[in-house]
Design brief:
Strand content: under 5%
Largest sheet: none
Shape: extended
Number of strands: 0
Helix content: over 70%
Length: 109
Amino acid sequence: MRQLETDSICIQPRRKRNSERRSFILFIRYLCIFLFILILLVINLLTGFSIGIGWIVLLVSIYFAIALKRVYKQSWLKTITKAFLTYFLYSLVMAFVMVIGIVISAASL
């Protein structure tokens, strides 16, 4: 019989938690690769490539939602809610970082 570790969050066999961590790390890895390729497309866009930035944002949104759905195997409503919250929090963090960057660069003038 496998011994279970008790956590305040959940009680799962250690093997299952390790498997979930590995799948999450793999998911993030593929997402970063996809975003890197997308950044290369944006660079091409800025140098004269003829695809709109709106299409690229839409493509990333669709890819991220489908990837979340496949990895976590949850309903579409939960998946889209997670994706929206992730986009929102990411936007807040990026806005905060941009404001700090502007303040630091303005202070150095």
